[in-house]
């Protein structure tokens, strides 16, 4: 799971500012609870603003975006499958997985660790 190939700055000490911005990329998934598509827009904005100056934020922004896009697709498929009942279970599983993986990413990035979400397609490299 942690067999990632992040940016070369993994060997250097990360500043608290970099860790906080990296954590905010993952924490911004909760913006989707307030603003429609906020869970995709918020990490996109953070990533676009900070990716050039902070490689840690570049990595975490891409991971957060990839995860939120995959989560949205999984939720839409689950919602469509509600017509055949299995969708109700899938929505619950997808929601719990999103919460667990996001909290794990928030904790890891706050410690300055690189976290790679499992089971997703990486659309943004």
Number of helices: 4
Structural class: mainly alpha
- Helix content bin: 55-70%
Q: How many β strands by DSSP? A: 0
Question: Which consecutive residue ranges, at least 5 long each, have pLDDT under 50?
Answer: none
Q: Whole-number average pLDDT?
A: 87
- Could you spell the SSE succession in H and E letters? HHHH
CA(first)-CA(last) distance:
18 Å
Q: Mind summarizing the main beta sheet?
A: none
Radius of gyration: 15 Å
Please state roughly what percent of the residues sit in beta strands, choosing from under 5%, 5-15%, 15-25%, 25-35%, 35-45% or over 45%: under 5%
CA-based shape? elongated
Q: How would you describe what is shown here?
A:
- The protein is mainly α.
- Helices cover 61% and strands 0% of the residues.
- It has four helices and no strands.
- α1 packs antiparallel against α2 and α3 runs antiparallel to α4.
- The longest helix is centred in the middle third of the chain and has 26 residues.
- It is elongated.
- It starts with 15 loop residues before the first helix and ends in a 15-residue tail after the last helix.
- The model has no long low-confidence stretch (mean pLDDT 87).
């Amino acid at each position: 799971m942690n067999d990632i190939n992040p940016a070369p700055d993994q060997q250097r000490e990360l500043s608290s500012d970099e860790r906080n911005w990296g954590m905010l990329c993952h924490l911004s998934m909760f913006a989707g609870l307030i603003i429609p598509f906020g869970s995709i827009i918020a990490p996109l904005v953070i990533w676009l603003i900070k990716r050039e100056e902070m490689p840690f934020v570049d990595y975490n922004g891409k991971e957060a975006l990839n995860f939120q896009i995959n989560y949205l697709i999984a939720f839409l498929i689950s919602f469509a499958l509600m017509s055949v009942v299995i969708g109700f279970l899938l929505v619950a599983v997808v929601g719990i997985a999103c919460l667990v993986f996001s909290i794990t990413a928030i904790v890891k990035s706050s410690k300055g660790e690189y976290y790679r979400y499992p089971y997703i397609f990486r659309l943004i490299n």
